[in-house]
Design goal:
Elements: H1 2-120
Length: 121
């Protein structure tokens, strides 16, 4: 009887261990599946992040090119403005010279006209 009781205890213990193993194995497989799902999600997020960073890098490059273009345009417009201002100053100077010459000619003409009137009297 002792032997049978010991054997029965061992069989019961074995069955209990077997059942616990099944539970642990089931839990392990569940955790393994959850880990695989989590790893896939991490990989997807990494890819999304890489794409987002690449997109932002392209945007930065585009903006840097636009800034360069705008700086060149601004420099060209500055040069054009300086040229136009110089042309305006030159025209103003020519206008003053022309007005002075006209005044001198008018004065000369007025004197000639006065002399002519005196001669005719």
């Amino acid at each position: 009887m002792d032997l049978q009781r010991t054997l029965k205890k061992r069989e019961d213990a074995y069955q209990k261990l077997k059942e616990e193993y099944k539970q642990v194995d089931s839990r392990f497989n569940e955790c393994k599946g959850n880990l695989e799902v989590a790893n896939r999600k991490i990989e997807e997020k990494e890819e999304e992040l890489r794409e987002s960073i690449a997109s932002k890098d392209r945007m930065v490059d585009d903006l840097e090119h636009q800034v360069g273009d705008l700086k060149r345009d601004l420099e060209e417009k500055g040069n054009e403005t300086r040229t136009l201002l110089e042309n305006v100053r030159n025209h103003e100077e020519k206008l003053r010279d022309t007005e002075q010459l006209l005044s001198e000619k008018e004065e000369s003409f007025r004197k000639a006209e006065e002399e002519l009137q005196q001669v005719q009297r």
